[in-house]
Every structure is written in structure tokens, then in C-alpha cells.
């Protein structure tokens, strides 16, 4: 069964209107003042293009680690994962404990030495060093396009929430939020975005924790919630692996093999290891050790944030059994706004609204800041206007930020055709991140991979994933029970197609000379990889390997209560 969609972008806006008062608006106003203040303060530190695009590579690991997870705490996390839980149940835990933690650990322990050691300013620039200009330009264009689409998701999600909760028209919410993001990124560059993301991380938690606690209280605790959902949705709705045997049926419409391979490996590693909106935070760290620890520090809150987004979705499904259908008048995306209406008093409501706005602004800022970096350094400076003074590219970076925000406003309405915006985001990831991941992983671990194989592998993977989704699935040529299941299959198809084409092209083209692969392929080293440890980096909590394996073990232990 496919995700239902509606002609109207938000049917329940009037019904979800909340009684906000002066206290709620005061909290919201204070937040916006602080956000702009951080932007003005960060402006003083921007003197070069490295300062604007990568914070001068000067930030400590705890700052970049919190910014790393905050950049992900956007529409994907808040509305998207709550919607995912309302639609699919406890299967949402897979997106965290096998769909995030292993890939974040892999990024920190294995891939960051290559990224940071090669001194690249962006993820696509690594492909320029490992392959050629064709692979670099294609990856830059694809990433810039995807960043604008994903930024639009955050704007759309923000608009429907603000329309429902505050009564603002969607276009007003989009313009106001876009203007604030534009202001603080244009002023302070990446530093402004990162410091705001640290603030937004705590504001988001302050919004989600009351919703989760009061939601559980409303349904009689965890026991009452699972009992009610078992009656209305079946026992498998509250388990992680129930009904996932091959040939079995479950709400997610996917078996254990497609979950492990499609989500746990292909989609997960594709997103966390090649998505520059995330990797950019690690590249801004002050040294290689801090860069490696950035995703590992972020992995620990990621393990537990699932409860703050999954439980509200489950509570919404228990209170509104027909959610997601026209009979209820509520989309899956309405789970969080509905609970805010039902549960939160004034004051707490203001914090919750501020937290949601913070989440969407953090996600949009992450994608816009990565977009301006890639477009300026990887497209404009390398292929359009080359060799200009550094100040010119800082000015251009600010102007392209304006264009990126305006384009995000345009793409915001593309998300309106999806009742579950998580499905939309996973579709984008299968198209853009997965093919890039296969090129990276083969290029990093196979010295023989030829210069030309990067371009053709990336193109083949992207086209195959799109054909599988739009032609084979959407036209009913192959039968897949849900959009999410189709995303998993598209991701696997794109990965396999990219890998096969890279191998075939490599067999008939020349490899890159070995001297040009130093620091770019596993088993080789660059000077940046062998830097001496910074003072104090020998402490146990600063050892990347210990942090990484600790996160994996902790995530595995969390699976136990949800396994059956």
C-alpha cells in the first residue's frame, strides 16, 4: 500500500490551530534575536574564504559534534520520523540503530582521515583528486541540486506547522524563516550556522521532551501504549523485527534483507559518509582527531533521540487510529502538531514551537551552507571564474546563498505531494547519495579503479535508482508494498548498477598513476593523516576508536527490548 497523498497541502490546518498567547510569542522573539546576534558576532571572524566556508578549520570537536547531529535534527527527524512511526510503528528504530550509528562510526574511523588528510573543502572535491573533472563536476551538480531540494523540505515542513499552530499563511512562514536563515549564514558563514546549530540542539530537546513525556502519560505509559497499538495495528507494530521474514507481511512493507542491505548499508552509508551537509561540520574541526571525533560524538545523542521522535508518532497512532487517511483529516506529518495541540500549555507551547522552528532552520541552514560551498568552490571557482582573489569568492559565496535560499522557497512546494515527508527524503537519498557512496567506497578501497570509472559509475547509479522508482515502481511493473520499501530497493539497484559499471569501465580504461593516489586510497598515507596528536588527545574520551566501538555496542544493546 502506497503512502496516501492529498490535493491540499495541509487539510487540518484550521483544526490544529493552537491558542498561542503573548508568552509563546515572547519566547519565539527572544530566540530569533539570539540567532541574529550569533550571526553578527560570527561576522567578525570571517576574513578569508576558508573562514566563510569551513570556519577556518578551527572549531573544537564538541562544537562540531553537536552541530553535526543538529544539522540532521530537521524535518527528517522531527516531522518525518514521527510521521514514520505513526505510519510504520517501532520499525523506526532501524533508521537509528542500524541506519545511522554504524555509518557514523565508519565515517569517523575510516573516511575522515581521507577527507581531512587530503585538505579538501568539500566532498565532491575529493572525487576531483581521486578521479577526474567529469566525476567532480557531475557530483557537484547533483549535490547542489539535492541540497536545494532537501532545504525545500525543511521550509515546507516549517510552513505547514506554523500555519497550523500560529495561523500564519504558508508563504509568510516560508519567507520569514528563509529570511532569518539567509541573514545569519550570509553574515557569519559556516561559523554562524554551526554555533546556531549548537543552540538549536538544546532548544529542540526542550521541545521534544515535554511532548514525549506528556504523550506517554496520556496513553497510560509504555504498557498502555503498546497494548492499545497491538489492538488497533497488530503486535508487529510495536516490534522492530516482527513480520520481517522473507515472504511475511508487516507495516513497513520490507523484509529483513532489504532493511539490512537497503537501509542499514546502502542508504545509511550513502547518506552519512557522502552528504556534505554533515561532513562539512567535521571538516571545520581544528585537527584530524577532532574531525574524526565529530561524527562519533554525534552518534551518542543519536542513539537516544529515536525515543523523542518515535514515541510521539506512536502516541498519535494510538489516539487517532485512522491517521494518514481522509477519514481522520490528519496526515502522518500532523503527528507532532496534533500532540502539541492536545497536550501543551502556554509557555511550554512557545518552547515547542520555537524548537520546531529551530529544527527546520538547522536543517535548512546545513543544506544552504553546504550548497554555497559546493557551488562556489567546486563549480564557480573551478569551471566558470577561475583565479580571482580570495575576497571575490567570499562575496560570491554570500550572493549564491541568497540564490540558494530563493531556490529553496521554490522547491518547498514539491514536498507537498508526500503525506510522509520521510518517504520523500529517502527517495532523494536513494537518487543522489547512494550512487555517490558507491563511487567513493570503490575509489577509496580499489587502487585499480580508473579515472573514467567515477563519472560513469555515478551516472549509472543515479539513473538506475530513478528508473527503478519512477518507471518500475510507480507504473506498477514491479510490486512493492510501500514507498519506503521502494526506496530501499531503488537504493540497492543504484548501488549495484554503479558498482558493476565502475568495474566494467575500469577493465577498459587506464588507472590513475600510483603517485597521484597517496592519501586517497586505503593503504596509502598523506602528510595530513600522520599529524602528531594534539595535547590531551591521549585521554580515553578523545580516542576515536574507543568512542566509535562504544557507540556501536550501545546501539546494539538498545535493540534488545524492541526485537520481539
TrEMBL record:
Belongs to the sodium:solute symporter (SSF) (TC 2.A.21) family. It is a multi-pass membrane protein. NCBIfam families: sss. Its main location: membrane. Keywords: Membrane, Transmembrane, Transmembrane helix. The keyword Membrane applies. GO terms for cellular component: plasma membrane. The keyword Transmembrane applies. CDD domains: SLC5sbd_u2. This is Na+/galactose cotransporter. The chain crosses the membrane at residues 22-42, 62-83, 95-116, 137-162, 168-187, 199-216, 254-272, 303-323, 343-362, 396-418, 424-446, 453-473, 485-508, 545-562. Pfam families: SSF. It comes from Streptomyces griseofuscus. InterPro entries: Na/Glc_symporter_sf, Na/solute_symporter. One of its GO terms (molecular function) is D-glucose:sodium symporter activity. It is found in: Membrane.
Amino acid at each position: 500500500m502506497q503512502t496516501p497523498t492529498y490535493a491540499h497541502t495541509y487539510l487540518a490546518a484550521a483544526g490544529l490551530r493552537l491558542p498561542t498567547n503573548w508568552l509563546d510569542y515572547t519566547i519565539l522573539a527572544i530566540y530569533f534575536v539570539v540567532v541574529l546576534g550569533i550571526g553578527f558576532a560570527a561576522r567578525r571572524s570571517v576574513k578569508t574564504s576558508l573562514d566563510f566556508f569551513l570556519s577556518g578549520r578551527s572549531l573544537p570537536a564538541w562544537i562540531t559534534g553537536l552541530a553535526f547531529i543538529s544539522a540532521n535534527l530537521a524535518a527528517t527527524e522531527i516531522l518525518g520520523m514521527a510521521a514514520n512511526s505513526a505510519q510504520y510503528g517501532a520499525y523506526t528504530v532501524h533508521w537509528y540503530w542500524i541506519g545511522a550509528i554504524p555509518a557514523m562510526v565508519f565515517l569517523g574511523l575510516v573516511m575522515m582521515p581521507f577527507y581531512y588528510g587530503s585538505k579538501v573543502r568539500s566532498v565532491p572535491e575529493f572525487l576531483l583528486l581521486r578521479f577526474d573533472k567529469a566525476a567532480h563536476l557531475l557530483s557537484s551538480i547533483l549535490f547542489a541540486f539535492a541540497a536545494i531540494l532537501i532545504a525545500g523540505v525543511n521550509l515546507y515542513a516549517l510552513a505547514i506547522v506554523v500555519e497550523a499552530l500560529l495561523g500564519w499563511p504558508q508563504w509568510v512562514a516560508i519567507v520569514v524563516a528563509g529570511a532569518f536563515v539567509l541573514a545569519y549564514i550570509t553574515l557569519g558563514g559556516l561559523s554562524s550556522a554551526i554555533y546556531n546549530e549548537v543552540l538549536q540542539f538544546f532548544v529542540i530537546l526542550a521541545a521534544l521532551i515535554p511532548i514525549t513525556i506528556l504523550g506517554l502519560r496520556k496513553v497510560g505509559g509504555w504498557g498502555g501504549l503498546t497494548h492499545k497499538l497491538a489492538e488497533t495495528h497488530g503486535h508487529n507494530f510495536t516490534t522492530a523485527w516482527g513480520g520481517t521474514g522473507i515472504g511475511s507481511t508487516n507495516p513497513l512493507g520490507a523484509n529483513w534483507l532489504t532493511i539490512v542491505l537497503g537501509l542499514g548499508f546502502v542508504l545509511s552509508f550513502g547518506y552519512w559518509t557522502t552528504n556534505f551537509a554533515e561532513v562539512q561540520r567535521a571538516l571545520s574541526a581544528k585537527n584530524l582527531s577532532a574531525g574524526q571525533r565529530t561524527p562519533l560524538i554525534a552518534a551518542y545523542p543519536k542513539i537516544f533521540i529515536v525515543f523523542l521522535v518515535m514515541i510521539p508518532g506512536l502516541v498519535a497512532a494510538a489516539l487517532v487510529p485512522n491517521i494518514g487517511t481522509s477519514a481522520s483529516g490528519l496526515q502522518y506529518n500532523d503527528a507532532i502538531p496534533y500532540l502539541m495541540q492536545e497536550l501543551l500549555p502556554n509557555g511550554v507551547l512557545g518552547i515547542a514551537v520555537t524548537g520546531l522552528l529551530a529544527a527546520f532552520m538547522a536543517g535548512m541552514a546545513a543544506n544552504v551552507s553546504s550548497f554555497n560551498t559546493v557551488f562556489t568552490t567546486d563549480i564557480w571557482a573551478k569551471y566558470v571564474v577561475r583565479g580571482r582573489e580570495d575576497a571575490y569568492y567570499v562575496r560570491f559565496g554570500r550572493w549564491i546563498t541568497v540564490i540558494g535560499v530563493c531556490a529553496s522557497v521554490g522547491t518547498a512546494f514539491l514536498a507537498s505531494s508526500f503525506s510522509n515527508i520521510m518517504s520523500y527524503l529517502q527517495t532523494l537519498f536513494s537518487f543522489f547519495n547512494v550512487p555517490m557512496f558507491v563511487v567513493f567506497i570503490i575509489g577509496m578501497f580499489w587502487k585499480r579503479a580508473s579515472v573514467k570509472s567515477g563519472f560513469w559509475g555515478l551516472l549509472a547509479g543515479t539513473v538506475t535508482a530513478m528508473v527503478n522508482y519512477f518507471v518500475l515502481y510507480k507504473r506498477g511493473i514491479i510490486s512493492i508494498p510501500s514507498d519506503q520499501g521502494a526506496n530501499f530497493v531503488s537504493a540497492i539497484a543504484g548501488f549495484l548498477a554503479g558498482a558493476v559499471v565502475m568495474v566494467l569501465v575500469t577493465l577498459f580504461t587506464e588507472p590513475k598513476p600510483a603517485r597521484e593516489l597517496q592519501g586517497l586510497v586505503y593503504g596509502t598515507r598523506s602528510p595530513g593523516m600522520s599529524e602528531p596528536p594534539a595535547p590531551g588527545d591521549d585521554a580515553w574520551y578523545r580516542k576515536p576508536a574507543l568512542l566509535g566501538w562504544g557507540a556501536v555496542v550501545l546501539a546494539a544493546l538498545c535493540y534488545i527490548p524492541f526485537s520481539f
